[in-house]
Amino acid sequence: MKQKPNTSSKVRVGIDVGGTFTHAVVLDAETLEMIEKVKVHTTHTAKEGVAKGIIDALQMLLDKAKIEPERVSFIAHSTTQATNALLEGDVATVGIVGMGSGINAFMANLSTQVGKIELAPGKFLKTFHRFIDTSQPLKDEAVNAVLDDLLKQGAVAIAASEAFAVDNANNEQKVVELARKKGILATCGSEVSQLYGLKVRTRTAVINASMLPRMLESANMTESSVREAGIKAPLMIMRSDGGVMDISAMRERPILTMLSGPAAGVAAAMMYLHISDGIFLEVGGTSTDISAIVNGKARIKPGEIGGHRIYTNTLDVRTVGVAGGSMPRIKNGSPGEVIDVGPRSAHIAGLKYVAFTDKPMTLKSRLIQPFEGDPKDYLELADPESSATTGAQSKNGENENSESKNDAEKLPKYTLTPTCASNYLGLVADDDCAKGNNESISVAFENLAKELSTEPKKLANDMLTLATAKVETVVQALMKDNKLDPTMVTLVGGGGGAAAIVPFLGKKMHLPHKLSQHSDVVSAIGVALALIRETVERQVVNPSNDDILRLRDEAQTAVLKMGADPASIEIHVEIDSRANIIRATACGATSVTDTDKLKKDLTDEEKLQLAAESMHAQPAAVSLKAGTDHFSVYGGKATSKKFLGLIQSEINPIRVIDRSGNIRLQVRDGDCLVSTPSESGRAINQLVEAHSQWGDAGKVIPSIFLLAGPKLVDLSGLMDASQVTTLSAPEVEKLPADAKVVAIASIDR
């Protein structure tokens, strides 16, 4: 439901670039309620690229919502420009300036020669390479000579990469500086990553450099349009890890925008839907993007291009070629049956959904081959007058002709889809954007069922069973990979086709499910609410507490520079002991909005009931373990069964619920202690000692979480209690002396 506009309040604008449509929304910055939404066709083929669609959507949104430019306090957009550039090979030729010194020079020369990089099947990034031995101080004349040589060969952008530049980047920076003086776009390895591994770092820098011309053109066009519209708020761009960065950061590292489209939906899952543990399914018309949320955070994975690793992290989003508009494949016979659903979709095949017809029609079925290479058994429903005259593939596999062919081709053609089937089975709510014309749907299913000598309900059920089977496989894999406890998982659907897939899947998997409000524009809402984000990584063997704090401060400084409000910043530090990597991720909002105050506070009884439902327990078996001004911590008792129930143990599930009823943390088995800020370190040590376990790798500490003021601080992923207390100290140092701090341990028995 749209909010009545407050003509004086600040607003947030989010624009999501999808495969078919670009959606834009405007939200009230205080209440976060949606004021208006619009959509335009995504402009993949325009000279300006997808930037044109972004600009068109913004102008339409401001006009429709009657928003004065000065009211816009935040504006961000996702983009498929980087992804499209890679898929289509629309990238610049890159000149590589490799560098190294001493005994490392030979290997550095080899490692910086990355050759042609495959971006997609049949699409390559061309590179030229020159090497400079930096055993002696680097001279401008030598660098300029190499740059001129690369330009003569055809290089359009430059990537500088030196061995061990993560320790001293002076030479790389000099090459970049001299290139830019010549008017050449340039980047360097230390600019895109601080990790060792010269070949991977060089490859990452080269791909980043190849994107610069196209991405800067798009960014400049978008920013100038935003400024011409009178909007003074910083323009933010969606990153592939679910956060946003300012446009100046994007100009340096456009590679970070890869896959920022799917990232927008995941941002919505975290910021708008407040999923703590679950699977988010963004269902469109052609495909479904699926991701796991654990402890309120999306899962991250290393990026890859053309099967080769790069030093860029992306969200673990898995795509399945089935969605709300997927076409069924039919096997004729007596009885006939649905044998598959998708991957071809009605939209791509030029067919309409029966669900969205104005009135019931008598349509004749036939099997078609939408495109060369497709199976010849996809279902088409058409007016009997056109069914034999369209020239499309007929049931007997022959092309048919008629004098009335041209007229017949103008008649609309339809198909049944998962959206139609879900409507037929009563799984679509009346206020859902996927709600269709029940009478039209019923007539179509009944007529097709007669032709196939089967029952309409079985036909609809079979369609959804086949469609959701593909999705279920991915959901099961994500749950396994992320060690998600099925008793704590909720399936959450977003996207215009969510009602076509998620309700049936939830029932099939015996998992609770829900659909997001404003599901058709949930990704645009995610963009509007996304946090400024930066990740800093270093390779350090046996890091000291000072090393960890320095990295934490560096990540915090990075988001502060991009405009994050200090009070909103949350930082998660994790240590990968196998790769000797410390990783600090900082997130922060441009302004602090106390979302707890925007909704009606739940009563203690309501929160207890919510916790009990989440634990699948009776309210009498659940109790309040701790409470602060912002959170309530509930605990219960349960029995864990292993090895076919032969081994049983008692566990203590914990739920953390905020004032407005969002479950912010789910712990399968845990413990908690309440303390003051000054005593919180002691409480953490007590929990660590009580619940650590010993294995082949030595002592393994439990994951620790801290409720400190309005923040839920994630201190998991660390190696020992000293690291946990070191990172917890900055989180509590500014709290009142008598404030309640709750430490929670998640125990992995």
Q: Could you walk me through the main structural features you see in this protein, from its secondary elements to its overall organization?
A:
- By secondary structure, this protein is of the alpha+beta class.
- Among the domains are: 90-211, Rossmann fold (3-Layer(aba) Sandwich), CATH 3.40.50; 326-452, no CATH class; 531-588; 608-746, no CATH class.
- The protein has a 6-stranded mixed beta sheet with strand order 3-2-1-4-11-12.
- Helix 9 packs across helix 17 (522-529).
- The radius of gyration is 28 Å and the shape is globular.
- It starts with 10 loop residues before the first strand and ends with a strand.
- The model is unreliable at 387-400 (pLDDT under 50).
Q: If you compute it from the alpha carbons, what radius of gyration comes out, rounded to the nearest whole angstrom?
A: 28 Å
Q: Going across the major beta sheet, what is the strand order? A: 3-2-1-4-11-12
Put simply, the count of helices is 21
The secondary-structure class comes to alpha+beta
Overall pLDDT: 90
Spatial gap, N to C terminus: 45 Å
In total, the number of strands is 41
What brief labels describe this structure?
749 residues, Rossmann fold, six-stranded mixed beta sheet, 21 helices, 33% helix
Question: What's a quick, concise take on this entry?
Answer:
The chain is of the alpha+beta class.
